[in-house]
Amino acid sequence: MITFVPEPHLLDSPRGRHWPRVPATGPAGALPAGHGRTADVVIVGAGPAGIAVAAALWHHGVHDVVLLDRDGRPGGRFFDRIDLLGQRVLRSPYEHHPGVEGFRDCELLDFARLHWGRLTRTERREIRMAQSGHRSVVPVDVFEAYCDHLVASHHIAAKTWRATVREVLPGGGTATVTTERGSLTARHVVLALGEERRAAPDSWWGAGAPPPGVSYWDESGPVGGGRRQVVVGAGLTAAHLITGALDAGREVHWVIREPGERYQCADVNSAFFRPEGRKRFDRVGWEQRLGLMGRFRRASIMFEFQPLLERAEAEGRLVVHRGAPVRRVSAGVGGTVAVRLADGRRVGGDHAVLALGTTPSIGTGLLPPALVGARDGWPELDERTMAYTRAPEVSVIGAAAGMVLGPAARNIDGHRVATTRAAAAIARRLRDGAAVAAGLEAVAGA
User: Fold this and answer.
1) Distance between CA 154 and CA 24 in Å, rounded?
2) Per-residue pLDDT at 437 exceeds 60
3) DSSP character for 399?
4) Which of 3, 256, 260, 341 is least enclosed by beta carbons within 10 angstroms?
5) Are both 241 and 141 inside the same structural domain?
6) Dist. CA 347–CA 18, nearest whole Å
7) Do 339 and 246 belong to one domain?
8) What pTM does this model have?
9) 350-389 burial by CB neighbour count: b if 16+ within 10 A, else e?
């Protein structure tokens, strides 16, 4: 069997290009202090999933929408993380984007073609690949400009407020959303919380903050980073960290607990992005779904990195420590870091970065635990509407829907599928509620 491995030059898309923008108002700013405000829908989180939900509701005629986000910028945290990694392309192909399914709207591929003159020769070839139905790589620059277009054309920025949500309490057909600045009452709430980084086990250094010289992938490391860097983790984030350190002229030591790294096009098997793949997931019970999630949520790296990393290893610039879990991480002598492995090996460096993956935010900590109904780390959801079974006033979009949509739930295309179900159900619920209210008013007037 011959495997086609794309060349690394696909990873070198430029950043920072100027894109024509649809005129729009800026973000709404910090949520005004106080209580008593209301909205038809409150969306918690303004990342790609939150943007998708807001855009879909706009097409359903639901405009009384508020987005609450810790940064107050649609897509801000998502792109800040990408910038921190120096990432230039997305793993998701052109058909996976936060645009709206089922409505006439500008798709990501259409947007890229509209700006053909701004694209590099390599980027244009990827568009031709996408048009032919083949896998394609999307530049971050194009994706970010497209998200800005969605935000402007669906009036999302003016509805986005900076606030930290502390509690969501449903009941009586509405839900109260409490923030550090007050509370809102909504007829429906959508949690688009994304994923949080996976923390290192307490046994690595004891509870608390990491030792000096150790940081997580979504934190800024020491200025300069030293001459020797250690990266722990086997996924795409680790690959970006490694290539960034290599480009900076550092010697990199890569720690992987598995016997070897795994390269593949998508982060999950492509079958799960198609309707027949989702049906395969639908037809089995809970235990079988858990098994599928375990098999297809494994850490992997885009094929484009393979020649680059293999060449660096052959040249001695990259040293890979395979097949031994980390047992201890500690500060070394002279400001260095020591990573001790289960087989006794000691890996030292000037700085260590931990890329241990992410965990879905399922609503625990915001909703009462009894309403989340967590089982094996997953919430109990209505598969038709994406609402919590025990709290129909609250829906969830994103990785937390994994046990409904399968491994693709964490991908942007999974957000599209979940949004299609949730937005239609929310719009229907709001219309039905309005109809009931109008009927009661008519009876009272008679």
Assistant:
1) 9
2) no
3) G
4) 3
5) no
6) 43
7) yes
8) 0.93
9) bbbbbbbbbebbbbeebbeeebbbeeeebbebbeebbbbe
Domain span at residue 238?
202-264+300-356
Q: Enumerate the H helices of 211-274 as residue ranges.
A: 236-247
Contact 325, 298 (CB under 8 A): no
Token pair for 188: 């429906």
Domain end among 310, 327, 356: 356
**Helix 140-153 and helix 48-59, axial crossing angle in degrees, nearest 10:** 40
Do 58 and 98 form a contact (C-beta atoms < 8 A)?
no
Query: In a 10 Å sphere around its CB, with 0-12 CB exposed, 13-18 middle and 19+ buried, how is residue 185 labelled?
Result: middle
Total length of the chain: 446
- Among candidate residues 85, 402, 133, 421, the one with its CA nearest the CA of residue 267: 402
Per-residue pLDDT band for 270 (boundaries 50, 70, 90) equals low
Which pLDDT band holds residue 419 (cuts at 50, 70, 90)? Answer: very high
Q: Are residues 91 and 216 in the same domain?
A: no
Q: Can you tell me the distance from the alpha carbon of 244 to that of 67, in angstroms, rounded to the nearest whole number?
A: 34
* Closest to 396 in 3D by CA, of 192, 194, 196: 192
Which H or E run includes 88?
A: none
Backbone angles phi, psi at 100, to 5 degrees: -100, 130
Taking the CA atoms of residue 152, residue 56, residue 68 and residue 240 in that order, the dihedral angle to the nearest 10 degrees is -80
Give 314-347 as a DSSP string: HTTSEEEEES--EEEEEE-GGG-EEEEETTS-EE
Regarding whether 92 and 172 lie in a shared domain, the answer is yes
Q: 177: closest CA among 364, 46, 368, 44?
A: 44
What are φ and ψ of residue 301, in 5° steps? -130, 145
Domain count, the chain: 2
CB 218: neighbour CB atoms within 10 A? 17
Per-residue pLDDT at 413 = 83
Pairing of strands 251-256, 318-322: parallel
My answer on whether 337 and 417 are in the same domain is no
Angle at 32 between CA 30 and CA 38, to 5 degrees: 115
Distance CA 409, CA 417 (A): 8
Write the DSSP string, 70-82.
SS-STTHHHHHHH
Within a domain: 68: yes
